[in-house]
Amino acid sequence: MVTAWDVAADVVDPEIPVLTIEDLGILRRVETDGHRVEVDITPTYSGCPAVETIRSDIETALRAAGYTEVEVQRVLTPAWSTDWMSEDGRRKLVEYGIAPPQPRGHDGDDGPVAIGISVRCPQCGSPSTSELSRFGSTSCKSLWVCQDCREPFDHFKTL
Q: What distance in Å separates the CA atoms of residue 100 and residue 125, rounded to the nearest whole number?
């Protein structure tokens, strides 16, 4: 049986269409009561322009699945972290040509954040890369280039 969670989890991110909102880790809660469903999502950052599209896509998918009353709430606390991204989502990013974020190495406390010296190229796997711009095709990504294969690529920022 397909659950309301399953339906919402299959909604794709409009900015990175190979990821579902479950892969991305922004789907936080789904509760049903008959034909009523409440969904909580936590955007990757508070000003994310894709949130309204995601909200609409969730509502459309759940209504198509038979839920007549759908409420999607934006939850900002706790703030989203790239640690919420699934391993499957990280793999999908590489396959799509985007370098995934590295795990932060802690559970959201105020401890140290691990900083990598380089980002592996998602095209050839080389660690010989450099950042071209802190801003990429979307706010959550930066633009990098590989020194070996010479291909530019996006890197999903670690947050």
A: 12
Spatial contact of 98 and 156, defined as CB atoms under 8 Å apart: yes
User: Running along the chain, 159 residues long, what does each successive block of 10 average in pLDDT?
Assistant: 95 95 97 96 88 97 97 94 95 95 63 68 95 87 95 91
Query: In the chain, which segments carry CATH 3.30.300.130?
Result: 4-74
Beta strands in the chain (DSSP E): 27-33, 36-41, 69-74, 98-99, 129-133, 141-146, 152-156
On the CB side of 21, CA atoms within 13 Å amount to 29
d(CA 141, CA 153) in angstroms, rounded, equals 10
Buried b (16+ CB within 10 A) or exposed e, 85-97: beeebbebbbeee
Q: What is the pLDDT of residue 31?
A: 97
Q: Looking at residue 133, what DSSP letter applies?
A: E
Q: What pLDDT is attached to residue 105?
A: 59
Q: What's the N-to-C CA distance of the chain in angstroms?
A: 35
pLDDT, position 115 = 60
Task: Specify the CATH number of the domain 4-74.
Answer: 3.30.300.130
Amino acid at 118: S
DSSP conformation class of 82: G
